[in-house]
Write a structure and sequence with these properties.
Elements: E1 5-9, H1 11-25, E2 30-34, H2 36-40, H3 44-53, E3 58-61, H4 64-73, E4 79-82, H5 88-96, E5 100-103, H6 106-119, E6 123-128, H7 143-152, E7 157-163, H8 175-194, E8 201-205, H9 207-212, E9 220-223, H10 234-243, H11 252-255, E10 260-265, E11 268-272, E12 290-295, E13 312-315, E14 318-321, E15 331-334, E16 346-353, E17 356-358, H12 360-367, H13 371-376, E18 384-386
Parallel strand pairs: 1-18, 2-3, 2-9, 3-4, 4-5, 5-6, 6-7, 7-8, 8-9
Antiparallel strand pairs: 1-10, 10-16, 11-12, 12-15, 13-14, 13-16, 16-17
Helix pairs in contact: 3-4, 5-6
The chain binds pyridoxal-5'-phosphate.
Length: 387
């Protein structure tokens, strides 16, 4: 309540995105909402509460602390899977609380079974298969051993899923590599079932794979960026637009809506004479007599310094360009062309004001950072409100 800036998350935009995604994946494919990275900066607690309210009942995170946050937030029972590392205390907690996790080597499996035995429970696992990304995953040569181990410990293992992750499904440049990964994954899935194992879910598609390689959807998709209203990259949007036929129900502009808006208020308004420098150093010299507004947000708020002298905000329904270097807690914007700006006026950093809009995509173009990175940089302590 004392913060100088806040974020709002738009629920109807989320419902719109869910509708679009469900239409694309069809009835039979399970939707798993990926909420790692503080729900891509949207705030994991408010986001999952809203998503659960919209009927989402499966969440994917990267670590146990995020799973813990979901458990703490939701009263209703949902499935949660940890896609990253679980060990020690977090492994004990996950198994005790029926939180699922990826198994990417036999050591994790052995440790999990030991804990499951001590708790007289089953661990709920997803076998993560190495198919060519070379990050985590069970090597093909270890598959037999892992499967035999799973079979021998059925009393303490529930094999919920078999999965992989594609490296580069967002761009055709990686087509050969992704195709090879798909082939490798399908072979591994076949081999696993040849041992008599029958996982509930086969899942490999992230947002980009789900759009560009719909054959990878199997019976579950793990969707991050698109549920928040962003295309994985421009190419994925263009490829989708090319397929849209005239009778498509949704046109691309309505397909996804961005959930997040980021606002603050004007802290101070002042005049600067022609020739004066604004802010630290000499990167910005007043081209004329100017009026500037000081905004109480800087790079410590995740507003990247790379937007110094490049970014824009909205004030009074107009674009106000950033002048000078973005400071830790403040920045200056040019409002010479905007009438009657007062201390306390609304400033939009991301989102709409009247007819104008500032998008994360425009940040990306100006700063050469990915939308994923810009979103997750927004600090946890800025209050988020669902509207
Ligand atoms: C982040 C992540 C996803 C979701 O990716 P998006 O591109 O945001 O849809 C899916 N699977 C794994 C393993 C991930 O790490």
């Amino acid at each position: 309540m004392f913060e100088t800036t806040s974020l709002t998350i738009n629920k109807s935009a989320y419902q719109n995105n869910l509708k679009f995604i469900r239409q694309h994946i069809g009835e039979k494919v399970k939707f798993c909402s990926i909420v790692k990275g503080n729900a891509y900066g949207h705030g994991i607690a408010p986001f999952v509460a809203m998503a659960a309210d919209c009927g989402v009942d499966y969440f994917g995170v990267y670590a146990a602390d995020e799973a813990f946050e979901i458990k703490k937030t939701l009263t209703k029972n949902v499935s949660i899977m940890i896609m990253g590392m679980v060990a020690g205390e977090s492994l004990h907690w996950a198994i005790a609380n029926e939180v699922e996790f990826f198994v990417f080597d036999i050591e994790i499996l052995e440790a999990a079974v030991e804990v499951a035995q001590s708790q007289n429970k089953k661990c709920i696992i997803h076998l993560d298969i190495e198919t060519g990304m070379n990050r985590t995953g069970i090597e093909r040569s270890d598959l037999r051993k892992v499967c035999n181990y799973v079979k021998a410990h059925q009393d303490h293992i529930y094999l919920k899923g078999v999965c992989t992750h594609y490296a580069g499904s967002e761009s055709y440049v990686n087509h050969e590599r992704v195709q090879q990964q798909i082939v490798n994954f399908n072979k591994a899935v076949e081999e696993i079932s040849s041992y008599g194992l029958d996982p509930e879910y086969i899942h490999s598609a992230c947002s980009a794979a789900m759009m560009n390689y719909p054959e990878t959807m199997s019976n579950m998709v793990r969707v991050g960026i698109m549920q928040y209203g962003y295309w994985s990259n421009k190419e994925t949007l263009i490829r989708y637009s090319d397929q849209v036929t005239e009778d498509s129900i949704l046109d691309t502009s309505k397909a996804l809506s961005r959930l997040l808006e980021w606002k603050t208020t004007v802290m101070s308004v002042k005049k600067v004479e022609k020739g004066e420098f604004i802010g630290y150093g000499n990167s910005y010299q007043a081209y004329n007599d100017m009026t500037i507004a000081v905004i109480p947000v800087g790079y410590s708020y995740g507003y990247t310094r790379a937007l110094s002298n490049k970014g824009k905000v909205l004030i009074g329904g107009e674009e106000a360009p950033i002048c000078g270097i973005i400071n830790m807690n403040a920045m200056c914007v040019d409002i010479t062309h905007i009438q009657n700006v007062q201390k306390g006026d609304e400033v939009v950093l991301i989102g709409h004001q009247d007819e104008k809009v500032i998008t994360i995509a425009s940040f990306c173009e100006m700063s050469n950072l990915m939308n994923y990175e810009l979103l997750t940089r927004i600090p946890h302590n800025i209050p988020r409100t669902v509207k």
